[in-house]
Amino acid sequence: MALIFSTIRSTALRLIALTAAVAMLVSSCDSVIYDEEGDCEIHYRLRFRFEKNLLFTDAFSAHVHSVAVYAFRPDGTFAWMRTDRGAHLAANGYTMSLDGVPAGDYHLVAWCGMDNGWQGLDHPETFTLPELIPDVSTEQELQCRMEREYKSLAKKETPGTRSDDDVVAYSNSDLWPLFHGMVEDVTIIDPNSLEADGQTITYNCDLVKNTNRVRVILQQLSGEDIDVRDFTFRLEMDNGLMDFDNSLVGDETIVYEPHNMDVGFAGLDPDAFMAGPEGTQVSPSDYVPVQVAIADFAVARLVEDRRSTLTIYNSEGGLVARIPLIDYALLVKDNYSYLDYIGHHMTNQDYLDREDTYTLTFFLDRQHKWGGARILINSWRVVIRDYNVGS
Length: 391
Prior knowledge:
By secondary structure, the chain is mostly beta strands. It has helices at residues 2-27, 32-37, 60-63, 325-329, 348-354; strands spanning 43-49, 66-72, 78-85, 95-97, 104-112, 127-128, 144-146, 149-153, 166-171, 179-188, 200-209, 212-220, 231-237, 241-242, 254-256, 260-267, 289-299, 308-314, 319-324, 357-364, 370-377, 380-383. The N and C termini lie far apart (112 Å).
């Protein structure tokens, strides 16, 4: 009887010991179970999304080829950064690892679209960021600056607006696409703490595109050809410096000049502009291809209520047109009001952030001047009342 009891007791003790060993294996981050399935440390990743466009779809993989992410503590001090670039960013489901960020609370700032040398193109960088020092630098130092050059503009180059030999900042570059994003309330825990349970936490970073293309087209209402060399185009803005939160910082005025000037061909639509200047009439026979003047600009972020003056002069120095570009760009926003019905209401700034291409077609009279009443903006016909062309 004693022998039977001893055997049962020994077997029970072995079962208890085996159960304890299994429990230790299951709970240990070094267990063979987790070695087969992956470690049980917690991991963090950052997913980028570029849905701020008029298609309301994620276009990150097609448009963004480099990323730089900065982590700041709640008091604004810089803690960590990581960059990545290359064709692999276009892979489905690309995310950036945040492993290595010290435990703590942060907000992240992303600047994307710089560091383009890997593409092998002979095109200098058009935006720059400062180098930050961990535990020393602050978020206020993370300002993105558009590169610009300086020159003295003779009076004949900008007639009626500047004195001789004024030195101005200017850009005639075809800017690399630039994107910005922020992520608030990011918490990183110690990967070896009891809270780490093998999960992967992914934060989403939504991007805003900060670069825009502006195409200006000049067409004679009479149907006559136009020579682009007979005109001077200038676009003046103060948008060359962006803060860590993507707001515009006080900066000098940038004189944008076309990075491309060319000729094109278009037809004059008599249904759109039947009444020409000075009482002339456009007949259906005038709907024939005519040569037009084209000027292409690349500009930084457009922000509502900021200065944005487009000025066009003819070869004699006469004013052809002067308009506030941003105000005119917003004239066609209401044409997208149908988006309200599917839950995509847009404020003025939301529209400026989603649209990145603006085409303005001016119809000129025989004196090469714009009457100020009719214009096409992104193919939308706009009739303007009580507007002074030289305002």
